[in-house]
Design brief:
Blueprint (H helix, E strand, L loop, with lengths): L2 E4 L5 H11 L7 E5 L6 H4 L4 E4 L5 H7 L3 E6 L8 H14 L4 E7 L11 H13 L4 E7 L3 H15 L1 E4 L5 E2 L4 H13 L6 E5 L5 E2 H12 L4 E4 L2 H11 L18 H12 L9 H6 L6 H8 L6
Parallel strand pairs: 1-2, 1-4, 2-3, 4-5, 5-6, 6-9, 7-11
Antiparallel strand pairs: 8-10
Helix pairs in contact: 1-7, 4-5, 6-8, 6-12, 8-12, 9-10
Protein name: SDR family oxidoreductase
Pfam families: NAD_binding_10
Organism: Altericroceibacterium spongiae
Amino acid sequence: MGKIIVTGASGAFGGAAARGLLEKCAPEDLVFLSRTPKKLQEFADLGVECRAADFDDPASLVSAMQGGERMLLISTARVGTRVEQHRNAVEAAVAQGVKHIVYTSLINADRADNPAIVKLDHRATEEIIEGSGAAWTHLRDSQYSEAIATAMAIPALQMGVKPDNCADGRVGFVSRDDCVATAVGVLTQEGHGNKAYPLTGPEALSIPEAMAMVSEMAGKPIEVQAVDDDSMYEYFDAMGAPRHASDIVPDGPIPWSSDDMVTFGEAIREGFFADVTDCVERITGKPPRSLREVFEAHKHLWPQ
Protein backbone atom coordinates (compact mmCIF):
# COMPACT_ATOMS: atom_id res chain seq x y z
CA MET A 1 0.00 0.00 0.00
CA GLY A 2 1.20 3.53 -0.78
CA LYS A 3 1.77 6.22 1.80
CA ILE A 4 -0.64 8.75 3.28
CA ILE A 5 0.35 12.34 2.55
CA VAL A 6 -0.74 15.25 4.79
CA THR A 7 -0.39 18.75 3.37
CA GLY A 8 0.12 21.70 5.71
CA ALA A 9 1.28 19.38 8.48
CA SER A 10 2.85 22.28 10.40
CA GLY A 11 -0.53 24.02 10.78
CA ALA A 12 -3.08 23.52 13.56
CA PHE A 13 -5.36 21.09 11.71
CA GLY A 14 -2.49 19.37 9.89
CA GLY A 15 -0.40 18.90 13.02
CA ALA A 16 -3.35 17.39 14.87
CA ALA A 17 -4.08 15.09 11.91
CA ALA A 18 -0.42 14.07 11.79
CA ARG A 19 -0.50 13.07 15.47
CA GLY A 20 -3.76 11.18 14.96
CA LEU A 21 -2.35 9.25 12.03
CA LEU A 22 0.74 8.29 14.02
CA GLU A 23 -1.57 6.51 16.50
CA LYS A 24 -2.87 4.29 13.67
CA CYS A 25 -0.02 4.07 11.12
CA ALA A 26 3.67 3.23 11.09
CA PRO A 27 5.85 6.36 10.62
CA GLU A 28 7.29 4.94 7.39
CA ASP A 29 3.77 4.85 5.90
CA LEU A 30 3.33 8.62 6.28
CA VAL A 31 4.60 11.70 4.42
CA PHE A 32 4.10 15.16 5.95
CA LEU A 33 4.41 18.32 3.86
CA SER A 34 5.06 21.93 4.81
CA ARG A 35 6.45 25.07 3.23
CA THR A 36 8.77 25.12 6.27
CA PRO A 37 9.70 21.47 6.92
CA LYS A 38 11.90 22.40 9.88
CA LYS A 39 8.62 22.96 11.75
CA LEU A 40 8.00 19.20 11.35
CA GLN A 41 11.10 18.13 13.31
CA GLU A 42 9.04 16.34 16.00
CA PHE A 43 7.66 14.05 13.28
CA ALA A 44 10.99 13.61 11.49
CA ASP A 45 12.48 12.48 14.81
CA LEU A 46 9.84 9.70 14.90
CA GLY A 47 10.83 8.48 11.44
CA VAL A 48 8.20 10.22 9.31
CA GLU A 49 9.36 11.47 5.92
CA CYS A 50 8.91 15.25 6.02
CA ARG A 51 9.16 17.17 2.74
CA ALA A 52 9.09 20.76 1.56
CA ALA A 53 6.05 21.66 -0.55
CA ASP A 54 5.03 25.12 -1.75
CA PHE A 55 1.62 25.19 -3.48
CA ASP A 56 2.67 28.37 -5.30
CA ASP A 57 5.60 26.50 -6.86
CA PRO A 58 4.28 23.53 -8.89
CA ALA A 59 7.82 22.30 -9.62
CA SER A 60 8.38 21.76 -5.86
CA LEU A 61 5.34 19.49 -5.70
CA VAL A 62 6.61 16.79 -8.06
CA SER A 63 9.02 15.26 -5.55
CA ALA A 64 6.77 16.17 -2.59
CA MET A 65 3.94 13.93 -3.83
CA GLN A 66 6.00 10.85 -4.76
CA GLY A 67 4.94 7.49 -3.34
CA GLY A 68 1.60 8.64 -1.97
CA GLU A 69 -1.65 6.72 -2.33
CA ARG A 70 -3.99 8.86 -0.22
CA MET A 71 -3.70 12.57 0.52
CA LEU A 72 -5.29 14.87 3.05
CA LEU A 73 -5.54 18.25 1.30
CA ILE A 74 -6.07 20.88 3.99
CA SER A 75 -7.44 24.09 2.51
CA THR A 76 -4.89 26.91 2.64
CA ALA A 77 -5.57 30.20 4.38
CA ARG A 78 -5.60 32.50 1.37
CA VAL A 79 -9.30 33.00 0.66
CA GLY A 80 -9.80 34.18 -2.91
CA THR A 81 -6.41 33.02 -4.23
CA ARG A 82 -6.20 29.48 -2.91
CA VAL A 83 -8.03 27.68 -5.72
CA GLU A 84 -4.92 27.79 -7.93
CA GLN A 85 -2.82 26.57 -4.98
CA HIS A 86 -5.20 23.65 -4.50
CA ARG A 87 -5.22 22.93 -8.25
CA ASN A 88 -1.41 22.74 -8.25
CA ALA A 89 -1.47 20.28 -5.34
CA VAL A 90 -4.18 18.07 -6.85
CA GLU A 91 -2.56 17.93 -10.29
CA ALA A 92 0.86 17.07 -8.84
CA ALA A 93 -0.60 14.41 -6.55
CA VAL A 94 -2.56 12.67 -9.30
CA ALA A 95 0.44 12.84 -11.65
CA GLN A 96 2.51 11.06 -8.98
CA GLY A 97 -0.08 8.30 -8.52
CA VAL A 98 -2.19 9.48 -5.57
CA LYS A 99 -5.48 7.55 -5.81
CA HIS A 100 -7.70 9.21 -3.16
CA ILE A 101 -7.85 12.87 -2.07
CA VAL A 102 -9.58 13.87 1.17
CA TYR A 103 -10.35 17.62 1.31
CA THR A 104 -11.34 19.90 4.22
CA SER A 105 -14.33 21.80 2.82
CA LEU A 106 -17.34 23.71 4.18
CA ILE A 107 -20.85 22.62 5.02
CA ASN A 108 -23.26 23.14 2.09
CA ALA A 109 -20.39 24.26 -0.17
CA ASP A 110 -22.25 22.60 -3.05
CA ARG A 111 -25.42 24.71 -2.66
CA ALA A 112 -25.47 27.41 -5.33
CA ASP A 113 -27.69 29.64 -3.16
CA ASN A 114 -25.30 29.59 -0.18
CA PRO A 115 -24.27 33.28 0.14
CA ALA A 116 -21.02 32.66 2.08
CA ILE A 117 -18.28 33.68 -0.36
CA VAL A 118 -15.87 31.28 1.33
CA LYS A 119 -17.90 28.47 -0.25
CA LEU A 120 -16.77 29.56 -3.73
CA ASP A 121 -13.15 28.49 -3.09
CA HIS A 122 -14.28 25.24 -1.47
CA ARG A 123 -16.69 24.22 -4.21
CA ALA A 124 -14.21 25.12 -6.95
CA THR A 125 -11.63 22.91 -5.23
CA GLU A 126 -14.13 20.06 -4.82
CA GLU A 127 -14.83 20.23 -8.56
CA ILE A 128 -11.10 20.15 -9.39
CA ILE A 129 -10.70 17.03 -7.23
CA GLU A 130 -13.82 15.37 -8.67
CA GLY A 131 -12.47 15.95 -12.18
CA SER A 132 -8.94 14.77 -11.38
CA GLY A 133 -9.51 11.04 -11.84
CA ALA A 134 -8.74 10.32 -8.17
CA ALA A 135 -11.35 9.11 -5.70
CA TRP A 136 -12.49 11.94 -3.43
CA THR A 137 -13.95 12.56 -0.01
CA HIS A 138 -15.18 16.04 0.90
CA LEU A 139 -15.23 16.74 4.63
CA ARG A 140 -17.69 19.62 4.79
CA ASP A 141 -17.07 21.12 8.22
CA SER A 142 -19.57 23.32 10.03
CA GLN A 143 -18.25 26.31 12.00
CA TYR A 144 -15.54 25.33 14.48
CA SER A 145 -16.55 25.47 18.15
CA GLU A 146 -13.00 26.52 18.99
CA ALA A 147 -13.44 29.73 16.98
CA ILE A 148 -16.48 30.60 19.09
CA ALA A 149 -14.64 29.69 22.31
CA THR A 150 -11.71 32.00 21.52
CA ALA A 151 -11.97 34.48 18.63
CA MET A 152 -15.63 35.28 19.39
CA ALA A 153 -15.94 34.74 23.15
CA ILE A 154 -12.83 36.63 24.30
CA PRO A 155 -13.61 40.03 22.68
CA ALA A 156 -17.30 39.64 23.60
CA LEU A 157 -16.34 39.18 27.25
CA GLN A 158 -13.85 42.06 27.12
CA MET A 159 -16.32 44.50 25.55
CA GLY A 160 -19.56 43.17 27.02
CA VAL A 161 -21.22 43.50 23.60
CA LYS A 162 -21.20 41.46 20.40
CA PRO A 163 -22.63 42.96 17.22
CA ASP A 164 -23.96 40.17 15.04
CA ASN A 165 -25.78 39.78 11.72
CA CYS A 166 -26.73 36.09 12.13
CA ALA A 167 -30.10 36.81 13.80
CA ASP A 168 -31.49 33.51 15.16
CA GLY A 169 -29.84 31.33 12.51
CA ARG A 170 -28.60 28.10 14.03
CA VAL A 171 -25.19 26.45 13.66
CA GLY A 172 -24.26 22.80 14.23
CA PHE A 173 -20.97 23.94 15.84
CA VAL A 174 -18.33 21.21 15.51
CA SER A 175 -15.06 20.76 17.37
CA ARG A 176 -12.02 20.97 15.12
CA ASP A 177 -10.66 17.97 17.04
CA ASP A 178 -13.68 15.94 15.88
CA CYS A 179 -13.11 17.07 12.28
CA VAL A 180 -9.46 15.99 12.58
CA ALA A 181 -10.46 12.60 14.00
CA THR A 182 -12.94 12.16 11.13
CA ALA A 183 -10.22 12.96 8.58
CA VAL A 184 -7.93 10.38 10.19
CA GLY A 185 -10.77 7.84 10.07
CA VAL A 186 -11.45 8.43 6.38
CA LEU A 187 -7.73 8.16 5.53
CA THR A 188 -7.29 4.88 7.41
CA GLN A 189 -10.60 3.12 6.63
CA GLU A 190 -12.11 1.73 3.44
CA GLY A 191 -15.42 2.70 1.85
CA HIS A 192 -15.25 6.49 1.89
CA GLY A 193 -14.47 7.07 -1.79
CA ASN A 194 -16.58 9.60 -3.73
CA LYS A 195 -18.61 10.72 -0.70
CA ALA A 196 -19.26 14.08 0.91
CA TYR A 197 -19.71 14.21 4.69
CA PRO A 198 -21.26 17.22 6.44
CA LEU A 199 -19.48 17.33 9.82
CA THR A 200 -21.37 18.87 12.74
CA GLY A 201 -21.61 18.72 16.49
CA PRO A 202 -24.54 17.17 18.36
CA GLU A 203 -26.88 20.20 18.33
CA ALA A 204 -27.61 23.42 16.48
CA LEU A 205 -27.50 26.67 18.47
CA SER A 206 -27.78 30.34 17.51
CA ILE A 207 -24.98 32.85 18.15
CA PRO A 208 -27.10 34.59 20.85
CA GLU A 209 -27.55 31.20 22.57
CA ALA A 210 -23.81 30.49 22.33
CA MET A 211 -22.94 33.91 23.80
CA ALA A 212 -25.51 33.41 26.58
CA MET A 213 -23.68 30.19 27.46
CA VAL A 214 -20.33 32.03 27.53
CA SER A 215 -21.86 34.76 29.71
CA GLU A 216 -23.30 32.22 32.15
CA MET A 217 -20.05 30.23 32.39
CA ALA A 218 -17.87 33.35 32.80
CA GLY A 219 -20.26 35.19 35.11
CA LYS A 220 -20.04 38.29 32.90
CA PRO A 221 -22.75 39.97 30.83
CA ILE A 222 -22.65 39.87 27.02
CA GLU A 223 -25.21 41.83 25.04
CA VAL A 224 -25.66 40.47 21.51
CA GLN A 225 -26.66 43.41 19.30
CA ALA A 226 -28.62 42.32 16.23
CA VAL A 227 -27.40 44.43 13.31
CA ASP A 228 -27.86 44.36 9.54
CA ASP A 229 -25.14 43.53 7.02
CA ASP A 230 -24.23 47.20 6.34
CA SER A 231 -23.70 47.83 10.06
CA MET A 232 -21.57 44.70 10.26
CA TYR A 233 -19.34 46.06 7.47
CA GLU A 234 -19.03 49.36 9.39
CA TYR A 235 -18.00 47.46 12.53
CA PHE A 236 -15.24 45.61 10.64
CA ASP A 237 -14.18 48.84 8.87
CA ALA A 238 -13.69 50.44 12.29
CA MET A 239 -11.44 47.50 13.23
CA GLY A 240 -9.33 48.15 10.13
CA ALA A 241 -10.32 44.89 8.45
CA PRO A 242 -9.86 44.71 4.67
CA ARG A 243 -13.15 44.68 2.76
CA HIS A 244 -12.17 42.14 0.08
CA ALA A 245 -9.93 39.07 -0.07
CA SER A 246 -7.78 40.88 -2.65
CA ASP A 247 -7.05 43.60 -0.04
CA ILE A 248 -5.64 41.21 2.58
CA VAL A 249 -2.01 42.03 3.38
CA PRO A 250 0.07 38.81 3.42
CA ASP A 251 1.18 38.13 7.03
CA GLY A 252 -0.70 41.29 8.01
CA PRO A 253 -2.57 41.86 11.29
CA ILE A 254 -5.98 40.73 9.94
CA PRO A 255 -5.83 37.63 7.71
CA TRP A 256 -9.52 37.74 6.70
CA SER A 257 -11.83 40.14 4.87
CA SER A 258 -15.11 41.64 6.02
CA ASP A 259 -16.75 40.27 2.83
CA ASP A 260 -15.93 36.80 4.16
CA MET A 261 -17.29 37.49 7.67
CA VAL A 262 -20.45 39.34 6.66
CA THR A 263 -21.54 36.77 4.04
CA PHE A 264 -20.70 33.97 6.52
CA GLY A 265 -23.15 35.60 8.95
CA GLU A 266 -25.68 35.89 6.15
CA ALA A 267 -25.34 32.15 5.44
CA ILE A 268 -25.94 31.36 9.12
CA ARG A 269 -28.97 33.68 9.19
CA GLU A 270 -30.43 31.92 6.13
CA GLY A 271 -30.03 28.43 7.62
CA PHE A 272 -27.04 27.05 5.68
CA PHE A 273 -25.23 26.03 8.90
CA ALA A 274 -28.23 24.57 10.75
CA ASP A 275 -27.63 20.91 9.75
CA VAL A 276 -26.95 18.31 12.44
CA THR A 277 -25.55 14.98 11.20
CA ASP A 278 -24.17 11.76 12.67
CA CYS A 279 -21.13 11.62 10.34
CA VAL A 280 -18.54 12.28 13.06
CA GLU A 281 -19.79 9.41 15.21
CA ARG A 282 -20.27 7.06 12.24
CA ILE A 283 -16.66 7.52 11.12
CA THR A 284 -14.82 7.96 14.45
CA GLY A 285 -16.99 5.71 16.64
CA LYS A 286 -17.28 8.53 19.22
CA PRO A 287 -20.03 11.11 19.69
CA PRO A 288 -18.97 14.67 18.77
CA ARG A 289 -18.17 17.17 21.51
CA SER A 290 -20.83 19.68 22.48
CA LEU A 291 -20.17 23.42 22.31
CA ARG A 292 -20.23 23.55 26.13
CA GLU A 293 -17.48 20.89 26.32
CA VAL A 294 -15.29 22.97 24.01
CA PHE A 295 -16.02 26.10 26.08
CA GLU A 296 -14.99 24.22 29.25
CA ALA A 297 -11.68 23.29 27.59
CA HIS A 298 -10.93 26.91 26.59
CA LYS A 299 -12.43 28.77 29.56
CA HIS A 300 -8.95 29.30 31.07
CA LEU A 301 -8.17 31.66 28.15
CA TRP A 302 -11.11 33.96 28.89
CA PRO A 303 -10.58 37.33 30.63
CA GLN A 304 -11.05 37.01 34.39
